[in-house]
Write the structure tokens for this entry.
Amino acid sequence: MKTRTLILAAAVAVALAFVPMFGSDVMIQFGINALVLAVLAQSWNILGGFGGYVSFGNSVFYGLGTYGTAIAMTTYNLPFGVGLVIGVVLAMLGAALVGVPILRLRGPYFAIATLGLNGAMMAIFSNLPIAGTNIGLVLPLTRNDTMFYELSLALLVACTLTVFWISRSRYGMGLIAIREDEDAAGTMGVNATLYKVTALILASIFTAVAGGIHAYWSTFVDPASAFDSTLNVRMVIMCVFGGPGTVFGPVIGSFVLSTVYEVLAAQISTAAALLFGVVIVLAVIFMPRGLADIMRDRANFTLRYFIRNIRENRL
Amino acid sequence: MTAPAKTPASRTVIETRGLTKRFQGLVSVNNVSFAIAENETLGVIGPNGAGKTTLVNMISGTLTPSEGEVIFDGARINDVPAFRRAHLGIARTFQVMKPFPGMTVLENVAVGALFGRDGGVKSMAQARESAREWLEFTGLGKRIGVGADSLGGPDRKRLEFAKALAMKPRLLLLDEVMAGLNPVEVDEVVDLIKSIRGQGLAMLVIEHVVKAIRSLSDRVMVLHHGEKIADDDPTTVLEDPRVIEAYLGKRRT
Ligand SMILES: Nc1ncnc2c1ncn2[C@@H]1O[C@H](COP(=O)(O)OP(=O)(O)O)[C@@H](O)[C@H]1O
Ligand SMILES: [Mg+2]
């Protein structure tokens, strides 16, 4: 990766850190949501983008992160930091328990198997007295949006640095080899099961912390919002829109889509979801390799680029 | 039956005992036993569908045998997964080539260096350096930076070869690396294979080009309908009437 790209990325991160000093409340709140979503997309990128395994179960780690934090803070009066750790541990356990059997499945079978996880978790947590059953839990109120914003930003930086390391490491080469051809990777010595499960566990850590931060910020957790499968769909869309298997693609993808959605929602509230869907469909057709692919080679960003993609999609 | 192979002075690297593979009703490999010693090259010939690739699949761990044993370095490895066999030092090429299409040529070979024998090297720089050397060696030095999916047929064969070599194997299984090459290219690959012999490497070379097999092999094994019908020195085997009838005769017509 070019040094210029890295310097630019660091500058953007620093600039973003100053937003709370100048931005309005609405802007900071939008920022928190966008940053949390970017963390989710970037985490999804680890197994999905590098390993090529499409998971619809990552939102479960988000839910475990929210509940771990919420239960620790409400039922046991523990500090926020301890709650986050509990959420992360729960999510990592979940990832390991689910990952070992499910990651034996290939391609679409893996994706289908992960689809059921949200429903299962929702059913479990709706019946857990310690988690407030289906009523949910109310967390202590802390009016400090700047703190939540900076925490989310720090988490995104940590997650992106991790993905950056992956992209240049032996570990990442193993994941990419699995994505490209799992059988060939195996015969070349890549322990595919170990790599896939650790990728899922790594993703679960950042996803759970994002869930914990969001839970404390919104002060409310219930099964439907914690285990929300549409949240997972958004992770996939944002990552794929930005460029799966790239370092900055998922971040750019989620910032762009969060902004588009915000603008659409402000202009024409009811049709926003529909228009948002149209934007995504067009994006997938015209640039299936994501925004990052266009940015990498701007000279290529011509009409011919789109025409070639349309041909490749056999439309 | 076939005459016993000349007793190798050095250690046996790979051995199979009564190896059999059934697919539903079809017996693809039937009760095949053979051994390859250090520094030895075994040529394997046989008509299409004879079970050559299936045999390699069972040794590399892509398929589990229905019966029989695969013994590497004196230990039974039937239940050892493919990636561990790579760590033991078993490397193979795929007849149906399996490059990692989204990676560059260099990265493809670096995977071999990073994960091959003994788990490979840990440093990316070292892996790239070793990959570069193997690519020079196999004649792909000028294509290092291109995407693997943009290589043509013969170059893909070379890439398969370089990927396997980068794993620093003790047993190298070459499944038709010369198929589709022109005579000049075949000679080049034969020279390459000859130059990596020694240093303990055991090789199994599946090939249809008789001339190449003759010049490379210390012994030749013939498979026919999944059964071993000959295993001896190249001259004896290639002049065996049954072999000519089963295989060579047909190919000449
Ligand atoms: N995975 C498989 N499933 C079913 N049949 C197979 C499979 N692999 C190979 N075969 C069959 O086994 C026989 C031997 O195939 P193969 O080992 O590829 O032969 P060769 O490499 O000698 O041409 C063929 O009849 C082939 O159709
Ligand atoms: Mg074959």
The pocket of magnesium ion (ligand 2) is lined by residues B 52-53, 95 (CB under 6 Å). The beta strands of chain B are 12-23, 26-37, 41-45, 67-72, 75-76, 90-92, 171-175, 202-206, 219-224, 227-232. Residues 1-80+170-253 of chain B form a domain with the Rossmann fold fold (CATH 3.40.50.300). Chain B has two domains: 1-80+170-253, 97-168.
